[in-house]
Design a protein that fits this description.
Layout (H helix, E strand, L loop, with lengths): L8 E5 L7 H11 L3 E6 L2 H12 L7 E4 L5 H15 L4 E4 L18 H23 L6 E7 L11 H21 L4 E8 L13 H11 L8 H12 L10 E4 L7
Helix pairs in contact: 1-7, 3-4, 4-5
Bound molecules: nicotinamide-adenine-dinucleotide (NAD).
């Protein structure tokens, strides 16, 4: 593709397997000439991420552990990145988690622990990451996170994750406000439903997917490539005037 991101380095957080949206973003960034660094949550994921990273031609990517529930992990991860490359130009935050039992039935049944877990991993982590990443974005930068329409509307079964996405979307605006003076932009991509490991946790995900294919303006499901290409835009100079924004890459479903 076009070499929009030539000479730039990005941290991609949240690749679990080849279906991950983070992996779609990684491939688009790689095609645009970017250098990539990957982080994974637990040792269980390490091999899968290393194997995928090794498939990117002409590039040996740094692969590091980073469990976002640990401040020390986030700090030591970005310290290692600083030692390896010095400067980064952006971060793709593609991380979320909620208990499966709370992704069905009534939101009302969410317990305190499940609520805080979803907020911790899916929302607060963006702020924790932004704080560490800021010090490495000495030439300005761009932070991109992933959200879903369930943060704006009550969508069946999305429940506690919808509340976490609302919190994530508000965080995008506050972080954009804080970091703009450093030339750092912060935006979200609101992706349509995509069949990933995380999506499996949402009860009756198939019917949500079918609804998009039948009713969304573009009459098709969202792909990780579509999200990846929008991420390239948000990381490149083409979007230099855009911050605090939430771009829907969902075949237009959100206008209905
Ligand atoms: P995925 O399961 O491939 O990715 C989720 C990632 O979060 C995994 O790599 C997992 O290891 C990571 N993660 C979980 N807990 C973590 C922790 N404590 N520390 C570090 N990483 C942790 O699924 P995905 O669908 O690609 O999800 C990526 C993002 O996209 C999520 O924020 C998700 O909510 C969002 N999103 C997904 C869809 C969809 O339909 N799949 C739609 C809109 C938004």
């Amino acid at each position: 593709g076009m070499n929009l991101l030539e000479g730039k380095t990005y941290v991609v957080m949240g690749v679990a397997n080849q279906r991950s949206i983070a992996w779609g973003i990684a491939r688009s960034l790689h095609s645009a000439g970017a250098k990539l660094i990957f982080t994974y949550a637990t040792e269980r994921m390490e091999k899968s991420v290393r194997d995928l990273a090794a498939t990117l031609e002409g590039q040996e990517s740094l692969v590091l552990p980073c469990d976002v529930t640990s401040d020390e992990d986030v700090a030591s991860c970005f310290k290692a990145i600083k030692e390896a490359v010095g400067t980064i130009h952006g971060v793709a935050h593609c991380i979320a988690f909620a208990n499966k039992e709370e992704l069905k039935g009534e939101y009302l049944n969410t317990n305190r622990e499940g609520f805080l877990l979803a907020q911790n991993i899916s929302a607060y982590s963006l702020t924790a990451v932004a704080k560490e990443a800021r010090t490495l974005m000495t030439e300005g930068g761009s932070i991109v996170t992933l959200t879903y329409l369930g943060g704006e509307r009550a969508i069946k079964n999305y429940n506690v994750m919808g509340v976490a996405k609302a919190s994530l979307e508000a965080s995008v605006k506050y972080l954009a406000s804080d970091l703009g003076k450093d030339g750092i932009r912060v935006n979200a991509i609101s992706a349509g439903p995509i069949r990933t490991l995380s999506a499996k946790g949402v009860s009756d995900f198939n019917s949500i997917l079918r609804e998009i294919e039948e009713r969304a303006p573009l009459r098709r499901a969202t792909t990780t490539e579509e999200v990846g290409d929008t991420a390239v835009y948000l990381f490149s100079h083409l979007s230099r005037g855009v911050t605090g924004e939430n771009i829907h890459v969902d075949s237009g479903y959100h206008v209905l």
